[in-house]
Design brief:
Elements: H1 2-17, E1 24-30, E2 32-36, E3 42-49, E4 53-60, E5 70-78, E6 84-92, E7 95-98, E8 102-104, E9 109-115, E10 119-128, E11 131-134, E12 144-147, E13 156-163, H2 166-189
Amino acid sequence: MKLRQLLVSLAAALATAGAAQAATFDGATGAATVTSYSDASNLWFDIDFTSAGAVTLNFTVEAADLTGGLNFNSLVRNLSGLGFDQLVFSLSGATFSAPGTLATDGFQAIASQGWNAQQLWATFSPALTTEFYVGAPLGTGTDWTLSLAGAQVGDTFAITAAVPEPGAVAMLLAGFGVMGAMARRRRNAA
């Protein structure tokens, strides 16, 4: 009888424990609504922007996170009614160790895209008015892999998704143009 009660208690504990989380999600701050679908080794999110801006997803490293990379994907929705020219994901305290896919729902095209260890980005033509997929949130494509190399249990890291204002993108491009002109001028003067 006691063995049966023990087994029932153990089964109940396992049922209520649920799956372990990949890196403890400590919440989001910023200009979007975030829903987490994360599980044992996957950081999966829906991010709904109602205006241009940024949202930061904050995490605490768990022991299980240090044994390998974490898969990351996100479904990003534009609920603003305005087009987004660019989307940038930046990491702090983690790095991208393997690329995944970037895609739209097909109503707009990705004009350019790229990534490095700290960021991934995409620009759109025409401007994005619907959904964007980082990795495989709908089961097609490849998730991005995050590395926590050098991290310890209890450390924190963050993922920031940003949609710059159209004027900010124009100023950024103008700034790159000015820097290029200055470099040419210096090269020609030398």
